[in-house]
Amino acid sequence: MSTALLTVESLSKRFRGLKAVSNLSFTVPEGRILALIGPNGAGKTTSFNLIAGVFPPDEGSVTLKGTRLTGLKPNQVCAAGIGRTFQIVKPFGHLTVEENVMVGALARERSVEVARRQARALLERLEMADAAQRPARSLTLPDRKRLEVARALATRPTLLLLDEVLAGLRPTEVDRMVAVLRDLNRREGITILMIEHVMRAVMALSDHVVVLDHGEKIADGTPPEVVSDPRVIESYLGAEEA
Amino acid sequence: MTNRGASPVGIALLGGANAGAATGRGAALLALGGVALLLAPLVADRYLLSVLTTVLWFAYVGQAWNVMMGFSGLLSLGHALYVGLGAYASAALFVHFGVGPWAGALLAMLVAVAAGCGIGFLGFRFGVKGVHFALLTIAFAEVARVGFDHIQWLGGSGGFFLPVEAGVSDPLNLRGSPLLFYYVILALTGAALLLARALLHSRLGYQWLAVREDAEAAEAVGVDLFTARMTAVAVSSALTALGGVFQAFYFNNLFPEQVFSMGRSIEIILPAIVGGIGTLIGPILGAFILTPMGEGLTFLLEVSGLELPGLKQLFYGVALVVIVVFRPDGVWPWLARRLGLVRANAEGEDAR
């Protein structure tokens, strides 16, 4: 296995006594796709927010390629090389699609015109060029999800955090997004950490799966290993199929 | 009732820097308006010139306020503070130290920026948001209003006066005829428009818009919220202070009760709200709508001999309600679309 890009160590977070994340440790190897799965309320999004610097952990640490991220603010985490999407999409509604992505590109680029060119290229890549001049609020949900990805990618991350970018998409749309993500990972070497409920996509995309339940890691392995794990079937997969 | 979602160009105008770019007709009309204002003193009498000066002053400070609210989503209801600080600082320098207004303006802006950043620091550092931030801005303006009443060095509540010498024309010290003041405020308004436009198209401008739209998402794409908001406050307060310098030397008298009043703060924000928050032309158009209407009302009252104190305020209130109900995005986005002054680039809203 290649070297760890992201290392999460003994991460814990409580909200008013409720243990949202408890002693969570895992690593994301460079160039791989890791999926974080688990039932609702398992602490997946909280883990994302801890990594992205939305709030500090009570205990534990997050390091990206040896650089400690714990205690940094979200904009500093972005500067360190982590791009993220939001589960509840957060487009800059009154700005055009192109401007949304430009703002992302401006994270590393001082020139507005260069950022615009980068945004256009990315939109082309994500098959959204036709919508470039539309206000983001006019987009449909699948397009908003793609815009989230485009905007995060525009910050030129080494690690992309995707929070349920496939949820609510139709099967054909899921396939398109999966193809785009795989392409980004293979061709550009972008490491991906994704929260996902769509098991078909998890199985197709991820090299490694971490399963959370009640804030704790209950399984950690390759997709086939994880789906045959009795604890996972009991707490997550079984519950869905029942 | 028109809601925001139903007016595509309105959205485009409220939107990003590039949205609603002017068409040839729009640019031509803007140029025509500029030329008309340049030539206005040829035909305007003294009264009309004073009305135009007032219009342009509100257009100018409205533009300044818009940098905070329209671009960055920071609601300030205490902009009279920056007007007053700018006015008093430059007037004090002139009266007590003989420093001319052009040099004094720099210090006046610094004072206002310091105050703005102080308020901003309190607000942004401790997460005071939205309406609560607005309350903070009101509080500081009110403290200044009461405080300046007691600063005898600045005339206290009795007022602070600048020496007036008849017939003196000294543009370097901003002493001269109404014509001089008219051209000064016209230049300031034009410069503020160009500056606002340049800012909106800059990296900082896009970051402001992002913060306005969704602070959390902006932060996730690398925008430092504190810095972005502080620079918006700094730019806005500096520009507003310059409006205060103008006011001090134009009227030659300053009373804390007037300069720092809540009513003044509201008068500053009305042009942008009426014309269109977040748009470049909105504050200018809003000032051209509101001030003449107010003047017309005063005139009608005088002619009819009616004595109705507070009617002007009532009128402003009604005008605001009408605008908010029928044109919540402001008059400019609607007008621009009707007259084809901007490129409609938001067809997606309809296509959906």
TrEMBL record, chain A:
One of its GO terms (biological process) is L-isoleucine import across plasma membrane. GO terms for molecular function: ATP binding; ATP hydrolysis activity; L-isoleucine transmembrane transporter activity; L-phenylalanine transmembrane transporter activity; L-valine transmembrane transporter activity. This is ABC transporter ATP-binding protein. The keyword Coiled coil does not apply. PANTHER family: AMINO ACID ABC TRANSPORTER ATP-BINDING PROTEIN, CONSERVED COMPONENT OF ABC TRANSPORTER FOR NATURAL AMINO ACIDS-RELATED. GO terms for cellular component: plasma membrane. Keywords: ATP-binding, Nucleotide-binding, Transport. Signal peptide: none annotated. InterPro entries: AAA+_ATPase, ABC_AA/LPS_Transport, ABC_transporter-like_ATP-bd, BCA_ABC_TP_C, P-loop_NTPase. It comes from Azospirillum griseum. Residues 6-239 form the ABC transporter domain.
From TrEMBL, chain B:
It comes from the Bacteria. GO terms for cellular component: plasma membrane. Keywords: Cell membrane, Membrane, Transmembrane, Transmembrane helix. Its main location: membrane. Pfam families: BPD_transp_2 (PF02653). It is found in: Cell membrane. InterPro entries: ABC_transp_permease, LivM-like. The chain crosses the membrane at residues 29-62, 74-96, 102-124, 180-200, 268-294, 314-335. It is a multi-pass membrane protein. GO terms for molecular function: branched-chain amino acid transmembrane transporter activity. This is Branched-chain amino acid ABC transporter permease.
